[in-house]
Amino acid sequence: MKLELMHPADQLVTIMERIYSCGMTTTSGGNLSILDDNGDIWITPAGVDKGSLTRNDMVRVSANGKITGNHRPSSEWPFHSIVYKRRPDIKAVLHAHPPALLSFSIVRKIPHTRLIPNADIICGDIKMAEYELPGSAELGENIAKMFDTGSNVVMLENHGVVVGDKDIFSAFHAFETLDFCARLEINALRLGNIKPLTEKYVEISRNKNNALLEEFEAKSYSSEEREARMKMCELVKRSYNQRLFTSTQGTFSERLSDGAFIITPYGMDRKYITPDDIVRIEDGKKERGKNPSRSVILHREIYARHPEVNSIIIAHPPNIMAFAVSDTDFDSKIIPESYIMLRDIPKVPFGSSFLQPALFAKEISPQTPVVLVENDCVIVAGESLINAFDRLEVAEFSANAIISARQVGEIVKISEYETERIKTAFNLK
Ligand SMILES: [Zn+2]
To answer: SS3 of 302, please?
Structure first.
């Protein structure tokens, strides 16, 4: 799907739906705009329910100031217009007040974008604009001053955030990434001390390249593979909707009965992945013309070493990741179901999964199906795709429960004696 070919009004509907369905705006809050090639600005309307906008609700403001549409333009229209005037490279502006970013806005702090790799690249240098009355020219000027410095992401004191970018999809990715960083940091601070990536690790992650694999021509696809591709796409979307993946992060793979495996592509918005985008890996070669996830070598090593593993997920959900970016270890012995599904989850140093994939593959076993990588990700292995997905959900739910429980009282863990009884009763090796 060529998203940039959609009409500006449809792009606004698509992105507002994503923002609203992810819980990142209220019915009345937030506004989006797109600068069309002919100088028209398309903007979301004032005073219309953000949960049910249609293309006919969008308002067009022509370069000469003429307003066309069924509603008034958003009351925040002044700052959208001034950002376009001051930064000709910006073609879309997004503004919202999601709860986690609001928390930062009201204490006037900027979320850490170096708890995990790449967030700082996606968001760039983030600035804070001084408070002013919503809808005022003064607020517009305060925001524009920050965009003048070259920043594309500007937090607003006691208000929210504004993101400008070359198109509305890129603006959304930066907005979603910053919101993820804010949620992750809040969770991690509830657990203990946060540990950002060191300069050395940032450097290492910058030099991470796509795997250089030879290509092969896929001549035909078995019905098993067709079904696996379709199911994988369904689960990728479900992971996205459950907020286990963001649009730019999260990888699935599954082994097929002929020994090949399929894996999600690199750099594609997880919300729009289709069966055709999935990449087949066969005898160490990739399907011609496609770009598999950069973690493809790690998947290959794990499958080669572990015949019992048929699916792998790499993800970054904000509760389990809070343990990967703080000094607190995750202990699954909170309820029997968590221990049975997850067993003990080790935390390994940043970089080990991609610098030494063969060595890392040894970490995975039937006794250790889930591994946390510091400041990077959680890696989950399963007998099947749905089994790995279930494990990922259990890990995220358990982590969420532990983080909340710390506010409620002291956590009582299942004892060693009871753990042994669980192992016997459920035949855990
Ligand atoms: Zn606002």
So the answer is: helix
